[in-house]
Design goal:
single chain, alpha/beta, Rossmann fold, GMP Synthetase, Chain A, domain 3, AMP-bd_C
Length: 496
């Protein structure tokens, strides 16, 4: 089974130890660990028959489905590289990412036109349903073929950042094993509901965490609050990890059931309630605490490139509002002279696929430059103050949007706010606030926004422009505000 820490052993080991235990559940369908390992072996034989070999890349363009899991397991077994792309991508974007991945094969479900994309790129294509059908006739034993080493690439995730060209983050078998390993002594973990889409690293990190611990993953095809609440309750899930925007949906669903007198508005089975990826307000954290009264609340900060970098949990969540905690295991952190957070350790990615310039810029002397500005307090707790590329330069001064947003968010009537820099011939950029009001009929005016900044922020950080919106544009996977889109939309509206 390969050399060293390889992902294929996760499936083989769980099938030997707990063959009848549920590995994954979606709706009314369940895959046991024995079934998943066997399906992975059969799929591996089928993929080898289609010409896929060790080191080849396979693009998987599909929605959340149990049928995708054997493909993931099969590619790990034969040493090919799994490259997922989002099912909601338009054909031209899917074609661009597929071309960038230079795959041997495209696997796509019936909801997308994978054949057309594969033809445009000039590679082979197989439908996911067709692959499942073909695999059924293959042997259930693992194929006799070249096996991966732990340093070989296992996955490539194309980043979905708010600006710039997506980059393919290469993660080795060893890195993915280490990022998700439960420790030398297995302890009861319980079922985890996964709300992340299956083209996102978060989904596979959560899946491998569960599978290495030999426990159950519950997938939900929709991320509305009611569906997530129903899944947690049906399976008595002990773990739930949501980005802040999705937690808001969960809390809204729980509030609605209380109003309708159909539930008590809590999820008592949860033992761990996790969040992160973007700013998490004290109000949201308080709401999660009430909704999951038996859970330890945790806030994580990390990235596809670096994995889980820091964590904040327990009493510290409310004691250190705005912080993202202390370094996670195996992570070494440092701040550059410009206060950019840098990370070093065995969990880092291998580089950006086919992009040596971007890799050289991000990885310097063994350190990954996160692009995040950070500060540490007297106890060593880290706080993110903004993105280096999001810094606003106004009149020679630097402004971190997150710092201004945290102040403006305290204004009564503000539901959400994003701070951006608008081009200006005099100042270079001017600070602009885009506000989503709680009530469109009672909008907090510019005077109220500027007044709250007095005495709390230097004058050059006060918003000089204020715009209002029904909602903020966010990335699909992580809910991060797309600041560049806001700037482009505002500038386009101001152009005669």
């Amino acid at each position: 089974m390969g050399q060293g820490l390889v992902i294929g052993e996760v499936f083989a080991g769980a099938a030997r130890a707990v063959p009848g235990h549920a590995a994954a559940i979606l709706g009314d369908r369940t895959l046991t660990f024995a079934e998943l390992a066997e399906a992975g072996n059969r799929t591996a034989h089928a993929l080898l028959g289609l010409g896929v070999a060790k080191g080849d890349r396979v693009v998987c363009w599909a929605s959340t489905s149990l049928d995708v899991l054997p493909v993931f397991a099969a590619l790990a077994r034969i040493g090919a590289v799994y490259v997922p792309i989002g099912p909601a991508l338009p054909a031209d974007e899917a074609e661009a990412l597929t071309r960038a991945a230079r795959p041997t094969l495209v696997v796509a479900d019936a909801r997308v036109d994978g054949e057309a994309v594969a033809e445009a790129v000039g590679v082979a294509h197989v439908g996911l349903a067709e692959l499942v059908e073909a695999s059924a006739d293959e042997p259930a034993e693992a194929p006799d073929c070249a096996e991966p080493d732990e340093s070989d690439p296992h996955t490539i995730f194309f980043t979905s950042g708010s600006t710039g060209k997506p980059k393919g983050v290469v993660l080795s078998h060893r890195v993915n094993v280490l990022r998700t390993h439960p420790g030398s002594q297995l302890e009861p973990r319980g079922t985890m509901v996964c709300v992340y889409p299956m083209f996102h690293m978060g989904a596979w990190t959560i899946a491998l965490q569960q599978w290495q611990a030999r426990d159950t993953l519950v997938l939900v095809p929709q991320t509305d609050g009611a569906s997530i609440v129903a899944a947690v309750r049906r399976h008595e899930a002990t773990r739930l990890n949501c980005v802040p925007a999705v937690w808001e949906r969960v809390l809204s669903a729980l509030a609605e059931e209380q109003l309708a007198d159909t539930g008590d508005g809590t999820l008592p089975s949860l033992r761990f309630a996790d969040t992160g990826t973007s700013a998490t307000t004290p109000e949201l954290l308080s709401g999660i605490t009430k909704a999951a009264p038996n859970a330890t609340l945790r806030v994580f900060y990390g990235s596809t490139e670096a994995g889980n970098v820091t964590s904040l949990d327990g009493a510290d969540v409310l004691r250190k509002p705005g912080s993202c905690g202390v370094p996670s295991i195996f992570q070494h952190l440092a701040l550059s002279p410009e206060n950019e957070l840098c990370v070093r350790g065995p969990l880092l990615f291998d580089g950006y696929f086919d992009d040596p310039d971007a890799t050289a810029e991000a990885l310097q002397n063994g350190w990954y430059r996160t692009g995040d500005m950070a500060t540490t307090d007297e106890e060593g707790y880290l706080s993110i103050s903004g993105r280096t590329r999001n810094l606003i330069r106004t009149g020679g001064e630097s402004v971190a949007p997150a710092e201004v947003e945290s102040v403006l968010a305290t204004v009564e009537g503000v539901r959400e706010v994003a701070v951006i820099g608008l081009p200006d011939t005099t100042w270079g950029e001017v600070v602009c606030a885009v506000v989503v009001p709680e009530d469109p009929a009672s909008i907090p005016g510019p005077a109220a926004l500027r007044k709250v900044c007095e005495g709390r922020l230097a004058s050059h950080k006060h918003p000089r422009r204020v715009f209002y919106a029904d909602e903020l544009p966010r990335t699909a996977a992580t809910g991060q505000v797309q600041r560049k889109q806001l700037v482009d939309d505002i500038m386009a509206a101001r152009t005669p």
